[in-house]
Amino acid sequence: MGEKKATWKELAEGDVLEGGSALKFKTGNWRTNKPVHIPERCIHCFLCWIACPDGAVRVNAETGKFVGFDYNYCKGCGICAYECPKDAIKMVNEQEENEK
Amino acid sequence: MKVAKTGNEAFAEAMRQINPDVVAAYPITPATEIVQLFSQFVADGLVKTEFVAVESEHSAMSACIGASAAGARAMTGTSSQGLALMWEMLYIAGGLRLPIVMAVVNRTLSSPINIHCDHSDTFGARDSGWIQIYSENVQETYDNLIQAVRIAEHPDVKLPVMVTTDGFILSHCLETLDILSDEEVQGFIGESPERPNLIKSLQENKPITIGALDLQDYYFEHKRQSAEGMFNAIKVIPEISKEFAERFGREYSFFEEYKLEDADAAVVVMGSTAGTAKEVVDKLREEGRKVGLLKLRVYRPFPAEMLGKALSGVRSIGVMDRADGMSAVSGPLYPEICGALYDVNGKKPVIQDYIYGLGGRDVPMEDIRFVFEELLRTAETGKKEYTLKYIGVRE
Q1: Which ipTM score applies to this complex?
Q2: Distance from CA of B115 to the nearest CA of A (A)
Q3: Residue B46 sits in which domain range?
Q4: Across all residues in chain B, what is the average pLDDT?
Q5: Do residue B17 and residue B158 come from a single domain?
Q6: Of the residues B248, B281, B299, which one is the last residue of a structural domain?
Q7: Are B18 and B137 within one domain?
Q8: Sheet harboring B316-321: ordered strands across?
Q9: Domain shared by B188 and B287, yes or no
Q10: What's the average pLDDT block by block, 10 residues per block, for chain B (395 residues)?
Q11: Taking the model in full, what pTM does it have?
Q12: B197–A contact, CB cutoff 8 A
């Protein structure tokens, strides 16, 4: 059974929705390649965090350290790996990785 | 107060008196003066408007959409290629139910490049969810823009409105018109009615998403809402016109009937050519010939039922199309007039289409007289002779 969907009379006018609804839309399953962090090379410059178009790089502002990727939202675009000045992020094929 | 103004000056003056919150615009001939004059009003501190000088018409409409979505009263002005560059944003303004008001100076579209009048630019935008109001002269240009604010913002409508005037013929033509005082304009338009779904966000600091992805399961419902705004405009436009007439004495409707009641032959015409055609009607009437005219003012929403009633008694109708539909049939107005008459009971008029005045080609009275001669002949015989004739082109 599907959700009860609003009729055109019930729906908020002008395609106005609550803010932040993208959080509910987990786009991580669009991913083919996934970024993998190599801690010994990382200098915590946060360039990956700046470059990520999906806000899927997690950092700790207090410690100033890279924390990890949020694979719920990472689409595997590889921009972080491309921008990393220390080659501290590698892209791996997720399916092949899982089948190993 | 009687003053002399061009169409562009009348647009700019109305905008000054409307005093919108935001104007975002990019100049284009022959509409440049509208925002040039308006930006001077901003510089002189005569309006409270935030003027955004953008880098293209696409951005002009985008900025208006952003401003309107935040609850502001937003306006702009453009023409032809500028309108064409706004295209995708026009649909977004309509789809999001944003009551933006735009002054458009009708100019043809390239190619070949030409800066003069025809209606191909706004006719092309007819399905974008914008209300369209056309003007016969500078007075109407001014009055239509002021009424447009009320129509757009009406809670049952909430759709953007474009008001048009004919490029150069009106935009650059000095005419006397009666302008209202600033207080009268402000008294008529009032404060923008609250749009609760938007305003709440600002007041409660509650973020909202506008124009989110809307796939197979919701897009249709939102489009149906926009369509409802257009259906409602059929009711709202006469209400606003009535109030305008009560306050200021000038009456407007979806269309004007000129000596139409007992006419055997009539033309349906839009914009400045209506003025020329009225002269021809008068001359032919002096000769005892029963001709009339219907000037269509509101093209979207299309007042089909009323048009059907008004035209059903006429034996022969000539539709004057100042755009070519490139359909290998007719101009764009012709099939809609035919459609309006299809559901009328009884004997239907003969209807023929006349494409005229493309790229600013002059429309002399002889050309319109020629059309009436053709129509009077078909009124006599009751037989349609052709669907389309081009008027004023070198054969």
Answers
A1: 0.86
A2: 35
A3: 2-248
A4: 96
A5: yes
A6: B248
A7: yes
A8: B255-258, B291-296, B265-269, B316-321, B350-356, B388-391
A9: no
A10: 97 98 98 97 98 98 95 97 98 96 98 97 97 98 98 97 98 98 98 80 77 90 96 98 98 98 98 98 98 98 97 97 97 98 91 98 98 98 97 97
A11: 0.92
A12: yes
- Give me the helix-helix angle, B365-381 and B273-286, nearest 10°: 60
Tell me the CATH number at B192: 3.40.50.970
Domain boundaries, chain A: 26-95
Instruction: State which of B248, B274, B303 marks the end of a domain.
Output: B248
Asked if B209's CB is within 8 angstroms of A21's CB, the reply is yes
What number of H helices and E strands is found in chain B? 14, 16
Tell whether the model's pLDDT for residue A97 goes beyond 60. Answer: yes
Asked if B288 and B229 sit in the same domain, the reply is no
Alpha carbons within 13 angstroms on the beta-carbon side of residue B104 total 37
Confidence of residue A1 (pLDDT cuts 50, 70, 90): low
| Domain A26-95 CATH class label | alpha beta
**pLDDT reported for residue A27:** 93
B352 and B223 in one domain? no
Alpha-carbon distance B209 to nearest alpha carbon in chain A (angstroms):
5
Pick the residue of B98, B202, B208, B232 with the most A CBs within 10 A to test the interface with A by mutation.
B208
CA distance B16 to B6: 15
B220 and B349 assigned to the same domain: no
Q: Looking at the structure, do residues B143 and B9 belong to the same domain, yes or no?
A: yes
pLDDT class of A100 with cuts at 50, 70, 90: confident
- Which residue from B96, B211, B222 is facing A11, i.e. has the nearest CB? B222
In terms of Cα–Cα distance, which of B5, B12, B13 is closest to B27?
B12
Query: Residue B82: exposed, middle, or buried by beta-carbon count in 10 A (0-12, 13-18, 19+)?
Result: buried
Query: What residues in chain A have their Cβ under 8 A from chain B's Cβ atoms?
Result: 5-8, 11-22
- In A, which residues are within 8 Å of B212 by CB distance? 15, 17, 21
Look at residue A10 and tell me whether its pLDDT is greater than 80.
yes
The pLDDT score that the predictor gives to residue B46 is 98
Which residue of A lies nearest to B99 if distances are taken between CA atoms?
Answer: A14
Strand partners, B2: B178
Q: DSSP of B33-72, one letter per residue?
A: HHHHHHHHHHHTT-S--EEEE-SSHHHHHHHHHHHHHTT-
User: pLDDT at position B241, please?
Assistant: 98
Residues of chain A found within 8 Å of residue B96, distances taken between Cβ atoms: 14-15
Q: Please give the tally of structural domains in chain B.
A: 2
Task: Report the percentage of chain B scoring pLDDT > 90.
Answer: 93
